[in-house]
Amino acid sequence: MDIILSNANPDPIYEQIAQQMRAQIVSGILKEGELLPSIRSLAKELRISVITTKRAYDELEREGYIQTIAAKGSYVATRSHEQLKEEYLRKIEEHMRSIHLLAQFIGLSEEELGMMYQLLREGES
């Protein structure tokens, strides 16, 4: 499993792990039912505390992305792709509401917002 941690990232380490694992599950890189590395082995691989890794796994389990079976390990939970997509669409809508309010506050037009989005996408290429 590819997880890249950054001290420059303002998010806590456990959240960086959880975000990247969520993305890999949603994109299908990690498949439903797939066995995940143990908390200890992932902590060792990433050179971080077992407590930090456990916190990431606990968060993912609470959100329904993974399930843990005692003495067997943690697995990618069985969720439909549509459920995951719907969850992400809700998050996008929340962010768009915030962007809309901020843009209104400073008088930014839809055209200017569109240009900002295009520049953002071009910068990622």
Descriptive notes:
The chain has 125 residues and is mainly α. It has two domains: 13-76, Orthogonal Bundle (Arc Repressor Mutant, subunit A); 81-124. It has helices spanning 13-27, 39-46, 50-62, 81-106, 110-124; strands at 66-69, 73-76. Strands 1-2 form a two-stranded antiparallel ribbon. Strand 1 (66-69) and strand 2 form a beta hairpin. Pfam families: GntR. Keywords: DNA-binding, Transcription, Transcription regulation. One of its GO terms (molecular function) is DNA binding. This is Transcriptional regulator, GntR family. Residues 11-79 form the HTH gntR-type domain.
Helix content: 55-70%
Domain module tally: 2
Order of helices and strands: HHHEEHH
Number of discrete helical segments: 5
Write the CATH architecture name of the largest domain: Orthogonal Bundle
How much of the sequence lies in strands comes to: 5-15%
Category from helices, strands and their pairing: mainly alpha
- Using only C-alpha atoms, the radius of gyration works out to 18 Å
The low-pLDDT segments are none
Instruction: Tell me the span between the first and last alpha carbons.
Output: 24 Å
Q: Give the class-level CATH name of the largest domain.
A: Mainly Alpha
Could you name the CATH homologous superfamily of the largest domain? Winged helix-like DNA-binding domain superfamily/Winged helix DNA-binding domain
Mean pLDDT: 92
Secondary structure tally: strands:
2
Global geometry:
elongated
CATH topology name of the largest domain, in short, is Arc Repressor Mutant, subunit A
The biggest beta sheet is recorded as: 2 strands, antiparallel
**Strands in their spatial order, largest beta sheet:** 1-2
